[in-house]
């Protein structure tokens, strides 16, 4: 894109090992942006939760890692995209402890707490996209 | 099939997790540990996570499950070496570790387990 320094990496999420790869790829990206260890850990943990959701509940999908390094800000925008069943009640899904599987029900709410920005787009039968971002202040 | 090794030291079991585990591997560890607690009549389980730079809700649940199963089998569980960034993230994630004692290192962890369980 002209004038902007934006890199997007696509990580398929089709198997358990893909979530591990996502964590590793994201780690490298966050280190290159200069995030603190704590910010790295929070973001990778959030990504692990959302990546798992895409895999387990979304029927598989992909993660997009967008590195943003334009003049005024540096950061990362992660998108988790699936064409799965969608979430019927987003508010309920965001409630800690609520799960339709065997999990702890902390993934969506946790990711929202761990990231700077959080956006959930979903509809029954229309798939789900979760977008989180973290910015480095300097 | 990849497995995380479990060491027996007297009536303690020691697991050192040094790989970035995918979910299936974590489930295998959970099953393996429970089986070994029974087979070796273990009184204590030490889980060393000092090499883990990440603990998400799935791994957290695995730890809770191991501790709960160990308790049913009359064994204690100690989690050793949690990295600070991991501790901070777990709190923000909203994950509470249940039935698990924590220690800074393996030595302290071992001294926390039941008397008579030193190797």
Secondary structure blueprint with pairings:
The complex is a heterodimer of chains A (138) and B (119).
Chain A: E1 6-13, H1 16-33, H2 37-56, E2 61-70, E3 73-82, H3 90-93, H4 107-114, E4 117-122, E5 128-136
Antiparallel strand pairs in A: 1-2, 2-3, 3-5, 4-5
Helix pairs in contact in A: 1-2, 2-4
Chain B: E1 6-9, E2 12-16, H1 23-39, E3 44-48, H2 57-72, E4 76-80, H3 84-93, E5 101-103, H4 106-112
Parallel strand pairs in B: 2-3, 3-4, 4-5
Antiparallel strand pairs in B: 1-2
Helix pairs in contact in B: 1-2
* Number of helical stretches of at least 4 residues of chain B: 4
Largest interface, with Cβ-Cβ < 8 Å?
A-B, 25 and 23 residues
Mean pLDDT of chain A: 93
Structural class of chain A: alpha+beta
Uncertain runs of chain B are: none
The counted number of beta strands of chain A is: 5
Structural class per helix/strand content of chain B?
alpha/beta
Helix segment tally of chain A: 4
The total strand number of chain B stands at 5
Largest sheet of chain B: 5 strands, mixed
Q: What Rg of chain A do the Cα atoms give?
A: 15 Å
- For the biggest β-sheet of chain A, the strand order reads 1-2-3-5-4
The general outline of chain A is globular
Name the helix and strand elements of chain B from N-terminus to C-terminus, one letter apiece. EEHEHEHEH
Mean pLDDT of chain B: 93
Condensed summary:
The complex is a heterodimer of chains A (138) and B (119). Chain A is α+β, with helices and mostly antiparallel strands. Chain A is built from four helices and five strands, in the order E-H-H-E-E-H-H-E-E.
């Amino acid at each position: 894109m002209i004038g902007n320094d934006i890199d997007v990496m696509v990580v398929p999420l089709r198997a358990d090992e893909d979530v591990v790869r996502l964590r590793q790829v994201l780690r490298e990206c966050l280190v290159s942006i200069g995030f603190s260890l704590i910010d790295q850990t929070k973001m990778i943990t959030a990504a692990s939760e959302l990546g798992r959701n895409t895999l387990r509940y979304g029927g598989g999908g992909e993660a997009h890692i967008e590195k943003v390094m334009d003049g005024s800000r540096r950061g990362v925008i992660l998108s988790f995209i699936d064409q799965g069943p969608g979430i019927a009640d987003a508010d309920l899904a965001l409630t800690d402890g609520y799960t339709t599987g065997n999990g702890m029900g902390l993934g969506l709410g946790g990711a929202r707490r761990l990231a700077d920005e959080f956006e959930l787009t979903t509809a029954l039968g229309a798939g789900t996209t979760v977008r989180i971002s973290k910015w480095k202040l300097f | 099939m990849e497995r995380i090794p479990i060491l027996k030291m007297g009536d303690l079991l020691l697991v050192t997790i040094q790989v970035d585990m995918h979910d299936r591997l974590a489930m295998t560890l959970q099953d393996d540990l429970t089986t070994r607690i029974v087979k070796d009549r273990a009184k204590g389980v030490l889980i060393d996570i000092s090499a883990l730079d990440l603990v998400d809700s799935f791994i957290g649940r695995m730890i809770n499950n191991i501790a709960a199963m160990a308790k049913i089998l009359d064994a204690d569980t100690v989690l050793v070496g949690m990295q600070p960034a991991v501790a901070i993230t777990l709190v923000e994630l909203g994950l509470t570790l249940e039935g698990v004692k924590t220690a800074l290192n393996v030595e302290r962890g071992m001294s926390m387990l039941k008397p008579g369980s030193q190797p």
